[in-house]
Write a structure and sequence with these properties.
The protein is an alpha+beta fold and 478 residues long. It contains 15 helices and twelve strands. The strands form five sheets. Strands 2-1-5 form a three-stranded antiparallel sheet, with no helix packed on it. A three-stranded antiparallel sheet has the order 6-7-8. The two termini are 60 Å apart.
Length: 478
Amino acid sequence: MQNLGALLMSLGLPYDSDQVRSYAAVITAIMTGEAYRQSALIAKEMGAFKGFKINREPMLSVIRKHMSYVDKIDKSLIPESLYYEAKKVWKEAYELGQKYGYRNSQVTVIAPTGTIGFMMDCDTTGIEPDIALVKYKKLVGGGFLKIVNNTVPLALKKLGYTDKQIKDIVDYIDKNDTIEGSPHLKPEHLPVFDCAFKPAKGQRFIHYMGHVKMMAAVQPFISGAISKTVNMPNDVTVDDIMQLYIDAWKMGIKAIAVYRDGSKGTQPLSTSIDDKKILEEEKKSEFKPVRRRLPDERKSITHKFSVAGHEGYITVGMYPEGTPGEIFITMSKEGSTLSGLMDAFATAISLALQYGVPLKVLVDKFSHMRFEPSGFTNNPDIPIAKSIIDYIFRWLGKKFLTPDEQPSNVDYYADILNGIYSTEMDKAKIKSEAIEKYEKQIFESQSDAPPCPSCGTIMQRAGSCYVCPNCGSTSGCS
């Protein structure tokens, strides 16, 4: 269901009224009755739902209860055609169900449909009234989107206002964010435009029991529950909320949710962009990263490595719980270009770690970067490195990440080796020498391979040319 609140406003009817509740009841009665009728027709072709046979009488009893509530709708408040259509559709749904059963044990709920409502340009969602004639939606990236009710002109026309009067009233709403005090508007028509929130420059809004009564009106015609917010003012008491739940239970409502205005630190919709409180909330909710410094005395680990003959040292400082918080990389002679670049890079990574960037993100980002120097290493766990950066982050991953988090290729090699050497070989028993042998084979065949011009993947030698294992592109003769 969508835009019911806007439909009722366009008819010139106040949301909190017996007539509106009768309209809502008969509309939901027709929708659910038709859904069960179609479910019975589907059951005729495909069979009833699993369990219908043993629950036949209870299921038909449920349908009879739905059908009996149509008689409780005040038909004097709605068009006769709607009332008799509801009676007809439930009668057919019951008779067909007796013959064929139902394909669905339940057919309807009323969902919130907030996002869908925006996409469909609806003024209201579900069975909700409009939140406000003019509201401001807080955007994730900052700022507000102004949303203006498009149903007001239809309602004013239905109530007998001229085009000139409608234009004057709409202009007043756009300027003042409320219809209260607008020219030409008769006082007896104000309830038609009452909304869930009190406008920033007005006083009128729908009493929270109006929401509950609306839910009670449609609940007898819904298979499941209703997703709807009962909007309560900021000054309600605990006893008020407790009484609301009791009243909802007595009315037969299956589920209910309460929102007290201002109870959340921030709320996505507001009645005014000029409200100082909203601006303060936006400022408070602004995210600011916090740097977590290491203690003055901390544990550390130093690792010596060599990539294609280029030796270096990695020192990792750790937080008390053992997670890395800083790294130092020492290479070549102090004052050299390589030494300076590695110092600067290590400082950047240290700051990233201290500001909360997960190590896994950094390992995934920098592992397998390919540039010179690259080649064999003195580490049996990482026999070949595509670059010094590749080696550093693969080592960090193996040292500080769980096996599932590591960007290791061992399982990939294991799958290949299983096929090459023995179909019965257990992955867990593959010797490191075999893995190292295969990595060296790959390195030797790809050490001078260019990146694929189409997708960027490192190509593989195929004769005197290269072929891309990812997209299939070739260098010309493969």
